[in-house]
Amino acid sequence: MATAHHADDHRAGRRSEAVGENYMRGLYGDDDYNATHYGHQQQQRPPPAPMAVAKALATATAAFSMLLLSGLAVTGTVLALIVATPLMVIFSPVLVPAAITVALLTVGIVSSGGFGVAAVAVLAWVYRYLQTTTSSSGQQPHIVKDWAQQHRLEQTRAH
What we know:
This protein is an all-alpha fold. It has a domain of 45 residues. Helix content is 81%, strand content 0%.
């Protein structure tokens, strides 16, 4: 139905916004959108009392549930800290070097992988560069020419 009105507005030369506040209001069912957008006057009616009570009850229930879960999470975290702190102090001579070792191993493995990827990328770029310069001009690129000339010059000097 909104598409037919949109097409009528377009044919009549009236500007109709396809995206924006009005579009979103119509999409999500804002009650007074159709009335104000298409020039109809409509009385604003307050929502029925049972509906308002149901919405308030649902909102209060959800808020209370979230508050309860939040409190339980904080309580669990504090209890875990109370239990774990003495264990961390007792095992810190072992845990700290172990954590440092794990961190160094992780950094080493990740950086070696990154350097490997970079090396493959550079090799691929060089290969593509050599292929495109050789194929487009029909000749070897100047780098390869210079190397070949240098190699020939060294061979002549050796004989």
